[in-house]
Amino acid sequence: MNDFLQKLPQFAGHHLELSLLFAGLVIALIVTQIMVLMRKYTELTPAGLTQLINRDSPLLIDLSAIADFEKMHVPGAKHVAMSQFDPENKDLAKARELPVVVMDKDGRGSDGAAQRLIKAGFTRVYTLGGGVLAWQQAQLPVAKGKN
């Protein structure tokens, strides 16, 4: 280990591009982790969502495309098109104190919706990490159709 630490400055001097790339990746990783710690919503695993459903009866909002929603969704989820998602809606505003879980097909588009809910005053906001596909891959039941 001591030999490694002695040769590290020499390596960094000879391989400046690799050293800068490594430093950039480390900084990006640190920034990403800080952002995860500072966000005000929680990302759930499929098992975590199952526990939340059993414990608190959350409002489940699926932002997937309608065709994806009809093929497969978490039972009890309500479909809302992303273009029509409005946290200020009076019907949704009634659920401000309930836990709200936002999800989509693959988990990539729900972060923005979760942030909008937080901004609108919702206090218990969650996302489903990996989306409905993760739910299905965990071999949990899925519903089909519009309901």
From TrEMBL:
TM regions (residue ranges): 20-38
Pfam families (alphabetical): Rhodanese
Domain Rhodanese: 54-144
The keyword Ion transport is annotated on this UniProt entry: no
The UniProt record lists the keyword Transport: no
SUPFAM superfamilies reported for this sequence: Rhodanese/Cell cycle control phosphatase
Gene3D superfamilies attached to this UniProt entry: Rhodanese-like domain
Keywords: Membrane, Transmembrane, Transmembrane helix
PANTHER family in the cross-refs: FAD-DEPENDENT OXIDOREDUCTASE (PTHR43031), RHODANESE-RELATED SULFURTRANSFERASES (PTHR43031:SF18)
Protein name: Rhodanese-like domain-containing protein
